[in-house]
Design a protein that fits this description.
Blueprint (H helix, E strand, L loop, with lengths): L2 H19 L12 H11 L4 H14 L3 H5 L3 H8 L6 H16 L8 H5 L6 H11 L9 H12 L10 H9 L5 H17 L18 H4 L20 H13 L7 E2 L1 H5 L5 H13 L4 E2 L5 E2 L3
Antiparallel strand pairs: 1-3, 2-3
Length: 299
């Protein structure tokens, strides 16, 4: 039986499972604008969904469209990004907002090429917006989707890294022809990978497509194997130090926005590493270094 023939009963089972089990995230089920969907996708990169929800809600209340975000100060944007991690994403999102405001009259473009031409928007985000916001028939390919499709159709573990041509071909081959069904397919496969068909401890007994899964039938060969490097420890890294500096700046009162040099030095005992991290934050446009050694968020 071909992949296309196998996909139809799998699609029906996943659609029913999605209808009953999809997480009630605020940007789902037509409750968010296309811009809101894009913001949710940018925030969700390398970040757990449960952490994203309150930040997204606060962010969209403050800046409901691209024009509003474009007019915000850099300090406001970095502060609102909070502890989502990788704060340069926030600056790129504001760059994106300015292009949408200035070149597209505050309306998110609707084509793949235009979306990937926006600052900070790559293949996955553009495809997700096309599918989830505009209802287009397009394969959305992220880590969760690749893992589910590889296991169910190939009986193999997805080993991570960049998406391979064979994985993209499979995703496009089993994508339903009907646009509306393709949207549900993308959402349900991604949700299954996030909540059931997880990387290390998949819940195969409660999986709606367990009877159709080649990976389960084969005894789950190579479960959890990865080709990517192990995740870097966080404690003691430059990421931790940069985060400490940014968090200290975010919590300053509005009438005293400068963190004096002595308070900067109190954040981290290794002042060589600290100075390198402060300099890198300045180079990235996330902070401003003052002549007296103090720092502040950009104005």
């Amino acid at each position: 039986m071909s992949d296309i023939e196998r996909s139809e009963p799998i699609r029906r089972k996943l659609a029913a499972w999605w209808e009953a089990n999809a997480r009630d995230l605020p940007w789902r089920f037509g409750r968010a604008t296309p811009w809101g969907v894009l913001v949710s996708e940018v925030m969700s990169q390398q970040t757990q969904m449960s952490r994203v929800v309150p930040y997204w809600q606060t962010w969209m209340h403050a800046w409901p469209d691209a024009a509003a975000l474009a007019d915000a100060t850099t300090a406001e944007v970095i502060t609102a990004w909070g502890r989502l991690g990788y704060p340069r994403r926030a600056l790129r999102l504001q760059e994106c907002a300015r292009v949408v405001r200035d070149q597209y009259a505050d309306e998110l473009p609707r084509t793949y090429d235009e979306l990937t031409g926006l600052p900070g928007i790559g293949d996955y985000t553009a495809s997700a917006v096309m599918s989830f916001a505009f209802g287009a028939r397009i394969a959305v390919i992220d880590t969760n989707i690749r893992r589910v499709l590889s296991r169910v159709f190939r009986g193999e573990e997805s080993l991570g890294g960049a998406a391979k041509p064979a994985e993209r071909q499979l995703a496009n081959r089993v994508l339903p022809d009907d646009a509306a069904q393709s949207v549900t397919w993308n959402q349900s496969v991604m949700e299954l990978g996030a909540t059931v068909c997880t990387a290390k401890n998949p819940l195969c007994d409660s999986c709606p497509v367990r009877d159709d899964c080649a990976f389960l039938a084969a005894g789950r060969p190579g479960l959890g194997e990865r080709h990517t490097r192990p995740r870097q420890r966080f404690a003691g890294t430059d990421r931790q130090v940069r985060g400490l500096v940014l968090n200290a700046l975010r919590t300053l009162p509005a009438n005293a926005p400068v963190l004096p040099r002595e308070q900067v030095e109190a954040l981290w005992s290794d002042h060589v590493q600290l100075d390198q991290c402060v300099a890198s934050l300045d180079n990235d446009g996330l902070i401003e270094m003052l002549p007296d050694g103090g720092v502040r968020l950009p104005r």
